[in-house]
């Protein structure tokens, strides 16, 4: 059974930083793609960042480029999302996701075959 467990959300003032973590189990870590989505109140879930393991490509949504940084720790089966210069519009539930195929290499985004439970990020103005 695939499990993606997130941590690190919270409340931060605009301009601040947070780091999210996601630890995967139940699947081959470097298979397909892994990354993050977010869903703000009243909006659809949107792709934030992902890495395609086979192609080695990392893709960011335009809205977070230059502010968010994605990294991995293969030994810990964990991916991270370092969020800097946070804005109120970054407020959302952030979900870790994994795909069985390298969707990032193929499309620059992910499908979201597997999901974590989500972690709330709130940015106050």
Question: What this model shows, in words?
Answer:
By secondary structure, the protein is mainly beta. The strands form 2 sheets. Strands 2, 4, 5, 6, 9, 10 and 11 form a 7-stranded mixed beta sheet that branches. Strands 1-3-8-7 form a 4-stranded antiparallel beta sheet, with no helix packed on it. The mean pLDDT is 96. 4% of the residues lie in helices and 50% in strands. It has one helix at residues 103-107, and strands spanning 3-7, 10-13, 18-25, 33-39, 46-52, 57-60, 68-73, 78-83, 92-99, 114-115, 119-124.
Task: List strands and helices in order, with pairings.
Elements: E1 3-7, E2 10-13, E3 18-25, E4 33-39, E5 46-52, E6 57-60, E7 68-73, E8 78-83, E9 92-99, H1 103-107, E10 114-115, E11 119-124
Parallel strand pairs: 2-11
Antiparallel strand pairs: 1-3, 3-8, 4-5, 4-9, 5-6, 7-8, 9-10, 9-11
Descriptive key words:
mainly beta, 125 residues, four-stranded antiparallel β-sheet, globular
The count of helical stretches stands at 1
Low-confidence stretches: none
- Portion in beta strands: over 45%
* N-C termini distance: 40 Å
Query: What share of the residues lie within helices?
Result: under 10%
Order of helices and strands: EEEEEEEEEHEE
User: Which structural class do you get from the secondary structure elements?
Assistant: mainly beta
Average predicted local confidence, pLDDT = 96
Q: What does the radius of gyration come to? A: 13 Å
Number of strands: 11
User: Biggest sheet: strands, sense, closure?
Assistant: 7 strands, mixed
Q: Which outline best applies?
A: globular
């Amino acid at each position: 059974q695939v499990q993606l467990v997130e941590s690190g959300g919270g409340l931060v003032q605009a301009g601040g930083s947070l780091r999210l973590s996601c630890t995967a189990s139940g699947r081959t870590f470097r298979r397909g793609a892994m990354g993050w989505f977010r869903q703000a109140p009243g909006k659809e879930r949107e792709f934030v960042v992902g890495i395609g393991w086979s192609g080695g490509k990392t893709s960011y949504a335009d809205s977070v480029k230059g502010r968010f940084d994605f990294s991995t720790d293969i030994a810990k089966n964990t991916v991270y999302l370092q969020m800097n210069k946070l804005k109120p519009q970054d407020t959302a539930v952030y979900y870790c996701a994994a795909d069985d195929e390298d969707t990032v290499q193929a499309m620059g985004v992910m499908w979201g075959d597997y999901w974590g439970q989500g972690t709330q990020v709130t940015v106050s103005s």
